[in-house]
Amino acid sequence: MGNFAPPALARRVEPEEVGTDTWLIHSAQDALGQPLVVYLNAMVIKSKEPVIVDTNTIANRKQWMEDVFSLVDPADVKWIYLSHDDVDHTGNLDEALTACTNARLVCNWAQPVTG
């Protein structure tokens, strides 16, 4: 059987504060040998009820968890919001929900195309 593990991300990009108590969590991946870098981003909003927006990709699980939980204590997270259900937004959802025992998940289900 083939190896279906995701490729490791080779680039390290530090979390970036983009607003008051709002942090962009970067993951950067070379685009399959092309001279292009693809950024896969998530956010941490440190508010009265802290929010994690998207959970990134499994290829960057270790670094994503370290980055997110260096900014907010998992026990303080009240919301995990998924913008949509692509794998680069949901890759660490199970781990985030396991760590953030006080969080509620907010997401939207895909609607079938009719017509």
Summarize the structure.
With 115 residues, the protein is α/β, with parallel strands linked by helices. It has one domain: Metallo-beta-lactamase, Chain A (4-Layer Sandwich), CATH 3.60.15.10.
Describe it for me?
This protein is an alpha/beta fold and 115 residues long. It has a single domain, classed as Metallo-beta-lactamase, Chain A (4-Layer Sandwich), CATH 3.60.15.10. It is built from three helices and six strands, in the order ββββαβααβ. It has a six-stranded mixed β-sheet, with helices on one face. A hairpin with a 2-residue loop joins strand 1 and strand 2. The longest helix has 11 residues. The N and C termini lie far apart (41 Å). 23% of the residues are buried.
Biggest β-sheet: count, sense, barrel?
A: 6 strands, mixed
> What is the general shape?
globular
Tell me the strand percentage band. 25-35%
Number of domains: 1
Distance between the termini: 41 Å
Rg, nearest Å: 15 Å
User: What's the CATH topology name?
Assistant: Metallo-beta-lactamase, Chain A
Poorly predicted parts: none
How many strand segments? Answer: 6
The number of distinct helices, counting runs of at least 4 residues, comes to 3
Structural class by secondary-structure content = alpha/beta
What are the main properties of this structure?
globular, alpha/beta, 19% helix, 27% strand, 3 helices, 115 residues, Metallo-beta-lactamase, Chain A
Fold topology:
Layout: E1 16-19, E2 22-30, E3 37-45, E4 51-53, H1 61-71, E5 79-81, H2 87-90, H3 93-99, E6 104-106
Parallel strand pairs: 4-5, 5-6
Antiparallel strand pairs: 1-2, 2-3, 3-4
